[in-house]
Amino acid sequence: MRPVAGTAKISAEKRQRGRISNRALVIGAIMVAMAMISLEMTIVSIAMPQIVAQLGGLRLYAWVFSSYSLTQMAMTVVFGKLADAYGRKRIMLTGITVFTLGSLLTGFSWSMPSMIAFRLIQGVGAGAILPIALTIVADHYPGAERGKIQGYVAGVWAISALIGPMAGAFILSALSWAWIFWVSVPIGIAAAISFIVFLEDDHGHEVPSIDFIGAALFTMACSCLMIAATEASSMGPLRVSLWVAGCCVCALLFVLQERHARDPVIDFHLWRQRPIAAVNGTALVTGVGLMGLTTFVPMYVRGVLQQTPVIAGLALTTVMIGWPIGATFAARNFMKVGLRRMLLIGAALLPVGSGTLALLTQTSSWVTTALGSATMGVGMGLVNVSSMLIIQGLVERTQRASVTASNLFSRNLGSTLGVTLLGAVFNLGISRHAGALVTSKQLRHLLDAPRDFTLTGVATRDALQGSLHMTFCSLFVICLLSALSASLVPPLHIDPRTIRTVEPDSIAS
């Protein structure tokens, strides 16, 4: 028995040395895969007006984005569970294959319904790539370097936000809109080859069955929620209530199924742990904040402050600049400051930034708007890195992908809820400040020609100011919950060698 044990030990050591020698190449593959997703998300919005002009179906415009977000949100948790069960490499390659196939098909879309169907496929692939990429980082960098690498990964999104619009404009001017999607194909192939060659095969801890019923119920619950959120403005109260009721019924059936499933999709024992629940709650608020910024900051700068589209874009771009700054700071200083304290600082910056937006007036400078957005961006970067390190350090490797997916799901859920909540506040504000005096056509005209100083234009601008003020005040109240949720994370001990985060009670025991 001793020779066998010795041989196994030597084999494990060889695998560990191989993992260390290849990890820089693996991280390169991760960054390529992340760039594929982030670039595609950035440039699709640039191409959509031209796509709608050719394919028609303007009423389905929002669903080109919502269909992608729907399957991404629903499948994130499912693929996280599968990665723990069957290994990171299998699920990552599956995700890249599905995303690349979806991108190829989307470029061949002949109508808006077909594009929506193919975007659903893309979302499934993205739901696998994002959580597994961050899990692989944790697998290969178990020490103090992990935070730094996650900061690099966050930088990919910032770079994509900066070069994406230019790349999209170039593709549209030189090629057809289909290349907006086809450009992902060679990138996906390169990422897949890199993972095949450099990522060590990991077979996970095989399970005999998959909870398909639970996965289906979970997807149906997310679908009902997304439909209610996306179509709330166009559907009547009765239809919205029916979709919300459908979400609640599917969620209840899902909980009942998971309690009896042999290997559930979501391990509620993990979600009930106080640190994980509190961290994911903070991530949820971060998602709401991000949606509030991307939706309403450009509208404020353009319609109320009467600035050009370029200035409106710059005011929003500061979010994507602040995010990697916060992520890099957290990655380099969390060992000195502490993960819990870093999370608290980031969560506290969210209401500071949103409070700045709530104080804006018609005479404010767009620079003030940019500073508020940048402050929230820094806070989001701090929250993103510190929360990921906390939850990944609280569990064993066999549960790491699941908790990583739970954090990403919480952030995506926050974005979905943000669409509904802040959109409802905005519509209420328009009704309260304008009533029947201002029409939607007049609002669109104000955003297209903000320097129209006719009597109608002034009234419309006043109504937009009042409505957006209510929206930003609501965002401020929601962001206050980030500090409350972060404060519920108990003090944690950090092992400097492994970044295992352990509650004091666990240490004592």
Tell me what you see in this structure:
The chain is mainly alpha-helical and 509 residues long. It has 3 domains: 22-199, MFS general substrate transporter like domains (Growth Hormone, Chain: A), CATH 1.20.1250.20; 208-262; 266-504, MFS general substrate transporter like domains (Growth Hormone, Chain: A, Up-down Bundle). It is 82% helix and 1% strand. The protein has 18 helices and 2 strands. It has a two-stranded antiparallel ribbon with strand order 1-2. The radius of gyration is 23 Å and the shape is globular.
Question: What is shown here, in short?
Answer:
By secondary structure, the protein is mainly alpha-helical. Helix content is 82%, strand content 1%.
Secondary-structure map:
Blueprint: H1 2-55, H2 61-86, H3 88-107, H4 112-140, H5 145-174, H6 179-182, H7 184-198, H8 212-230, H9 237-260, H10 268-272, H11 274-304, H12 309-337, H13 339-358, H14 366-394, H15 400-433, H16 440-448, H17 455-487, E1 493-494, E2 501-502, H18 504-508
Antiparallel strand pairs: 1-2
